[in-house]
Amino acid sequence: MDARATPFDTRRDCEAQFLAVVAAAQHSLRLFDPDGAVFALGTVQVDAALRAFLQRGGTLRLALHEPGHIERHFPRFLRLLRDYGHACECRQSPKNLRQLTDSFCIADDQHVVRRFHSDHMRGEANFDDPRAVDVPHHRFEAIWEASRPTLQPTTTGL
Questions:
Q1: Residue 125, SS3?
Q2: Are the beta carbons of 95 and 66 closer than 8 angstroms?
Q3: Where are the domains of the chain?
Q4: Neighbouring C-beta atoms of residue 69, cutoff 10 Å
Q5: In terms of Cα–Cα distance, which of 50, 71, 48 is closest to 59?
Q6: Residues in contact with 141: Cβ distance below 8 Å, sequence separation at least 6, in sequence order
Q7: DSSP labels for 28-56?
Q8: Are residues 116 and 123 in contact, defined by beta-carbon separation less than 8 angstroms?
Q9: Mean pLDDT, to the nearest integer, of 74-81?
Q10: Which own/partner pairs from 111-120 qualify as long-range (CB within 8 Å, at least 24 positions apart)?
Q11: How far is it, in rounded angstroms, from Cα 87 to Cα 17?
C-alpha cells in the first residue's frame, strides 16, 4: 500500500479511521487521548473490534489525562478491561503533562490515526507507514513512562 495520509475533519470520519486502525492491528494498540472520549470505547462496534483483536493475542495500552469519562460513560470498556486484564493496561498522565492536547492511536508501529488537537476532529490516518508513526510512537512512550496505572479492574468489576 502506498504511504499517504488520509485527512479527516468529522467525528464520523475519525471513528471510521480509528476502527480501520484497530482492524489492521495484529499485535499492539497504543492509544493516547486526554479523556478517551473520541475513541468511542463504549460502543458495541468498538467493543467487538477490540475483543477480536485481544482474542487474537493483541495487547492494548491506553494513556490518558483523566479516566472519569470512561468510568462514567463506557461500561463496556470497563468490562473489556476486566475480561482481558492480562492484555490491557491503562495509565493516567501526571499533572505536568496535562497540557498535551493531541490524540492518537498506533497499531503495530505501522498504522496511526491522529487528531492534531483534542478540541477538534481535524486529523489524519496513515496505514503501512512507519515514518508517520515515528513521532506519535516516541510521544506515547514518553507519556507512558511518566504515567501511573489507572482504570484497574477490582473485585467489584470496576
A1: strand
A2: no
A3: 5-149
A4: 17
A5: 50
A6: none
A7: EEEEEESSSGGGTTTSHHHHHHHHHHHHT
A8: yes
A9: 95
A10: 111/20, 111/21, 111/24, 111/25, 112/21, 112/136, 113/14, 113/17, 113/18, 113/20, 113/21, 115/14, 115/38, 118/33, 118/34, 118/38, 120/9
A11: 23
113 touches 37 (CB < 8 A)? no
State the burial class of residue 86 (Cβ atoms within 10 Å of its Cβ: 0-12, 13-18, 19+): exposed
Which CATH code for domain 5-149?
Answer: 3.30.870.10
Residue type present at position 51: R
Q: What is the DSSP string of 99-124?
A: T---EEEEETTTEEEEESSTTS--EE
Q: Which three cell numbers stand for residue 73?
A: 460513560
Name the grid cell of 23: 482492524
Is the pTM for the entire model greater than 0.85?
yes
Q: Take residue 118 and report the three cell numbers written for it.
A: 483534542
State the DSSP code for 142: H
**What pLDDT digit, counting tens, does each position of 113-138 carry?**
999 988 888 999 999 999 999 999 99
Q: In what order do the strands lie in the sheet with 88-92?
A: 5-8, 123-126, 111-115, 103-107, 28-33, 59-64, 88-92, 148-149
What's the CA gap between 88 and 86, in Å, rounded?
Answer: 6
**Hey, how many other C-beta atoms are within 10 angstroms of the C-beta on 132?**
21
